[in-house]
């Protein structure tokens, strides 16, 4: 299992953390990543394009000229598709480009993208973004201290509002919530920067190390019913012989 140094905002080492092999250590599935990214880009299309057919174009109700005797080809409407200003034949109409992608395929694409960045050593973990105030200068200095360059995606939590405001003015930095992390955004950036709270697999590790709850005590057995003394006493031998 690969380990990554956990560093502070100033670039100092504050420990190390083990990367989950199920998330950062698999072999990237290029075909699945391509299909998921294609579906995501297709779903982002608005699909509001529309053209007018010959029935929707204004005009064209009158026959341009009579059927015979003019020497020209017969025409029934000046709004036919082959006329200038006419309708469009088989043109685009509003529709949805959304594709149905299985959840397991989306998850596999994300794990493949994260594994690809981890294999290149482009996954960084920060202890916390402890900015006192949202200042872009301090955010730029933090990335320089971490040795992160080019395009960066920051995976933050909902409570990191100050960090989001500090990084949002940097053109090469994309801040995204951990619940919105996807394969497309990971592949569009060179570095992926997590915090301890947003690192995938951290919650599962904490759950496995927690002590198991104590077993519940077994319920006490039900008390035996009281038996009358006359029935519990054994008859004397003389009476038993008389009965026989």
Give the structure's gist in a few sentences.
The protein has 244 residues and is α/β, with parallel strands linked by helices.
Itemize the secondary structure elements and their pairings:
Blueprint: E1 3-7, E2 13-18, H1 21-24, H2 30-43, H3 103-119, E3 123-126, H4 136-146, E4 152-156, H5 161-167, E5 173-177, H6 183-188, E6 191-195, H7 202-209, H8 229-232, H9 237-243
Helix pairs in contact: 2-3, 4-5
Care to describe what's here?
- It is a single chain.
- By secondary structure, the chain is α/β, with parallel strands linked by helices.
- The chain has a domain at 3-44 and 96-204: Ribosomal Protein L4, Chain: A (3-Layer(aba) Sandwich).
- It is 32% helix and 12% strand.
- The chain is built from nine helices and six strands, in the order ββαααβαβαβαβααα.
- The protein has helices spanning 21-24, 30-43, 103-119, 136-146, 161-167, 183-188, 202-209, 229-232, 237-243, and strands spanning 3-7, 13-18, 123-126, 152-156, 173-177, 191-195.
- Strands 2-1-3-6-4-5 form a six-stranded mixed beta sheet.
- Helix 2 packs across helix 3 (103-119) and helix 4 (136-146) crosses helix 5.
- The longest helix is centred in the middle third of the chain and has 17 residues, at 103-119.
- The radius of gyration is 37 Å and the shape is elongated.
- It starts with a strand and ends with a helix.
């Amino acid at each position: 299992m690969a380990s990554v140094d956990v560093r502070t905002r100033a670039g100092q080492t504050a420990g190390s953390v083990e990367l989950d092999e199920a998330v950062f250590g698999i072999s990237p599935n290029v075909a699945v990543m391509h299909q998921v990214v294609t579906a995501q880009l297709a779903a982002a299309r608005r699909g509001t394009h529309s053209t007018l057919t010959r029935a929707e174009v204004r005009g064209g109700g009158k026959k341009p000229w009579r059927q015979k005797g003019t020497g020209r080809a017969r025409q029934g409407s000046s709004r036919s598709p082959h006329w200038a200003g006419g309708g469009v034949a088989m043109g685009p109409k509003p529709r949805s480009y959304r594709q149905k992608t299985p959840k397991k395929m989306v998850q596999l694409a994300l794990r493949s993208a994260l594994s690809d960045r981890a294999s290149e050593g482009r996954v960084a973990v920060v202890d916390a973004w402890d900015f006192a105030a949202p200042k872009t200068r301090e955010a730029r200095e933090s990335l320089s201290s971490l040795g992160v360059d080019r395009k960066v995606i920051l995976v933050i939590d909902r409570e990191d509002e100050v960090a989001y405001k500090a990084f949002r003015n940097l053109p090469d930095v994309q801040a995204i919530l951990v619940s919105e992390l996807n394969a497309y955004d990971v592949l569009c950036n060179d570095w992926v920067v997590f915090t301890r709270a947003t690192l995938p697999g951290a919650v599962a590790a904490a759950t496995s190390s927690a002590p198991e709850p104590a077993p519940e005590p077994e319920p006490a057995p039900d008390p035996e019913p009281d038996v009358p003394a006359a029935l519990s006493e054994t008859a004397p031998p003389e009476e038993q012989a008389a009965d026989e």
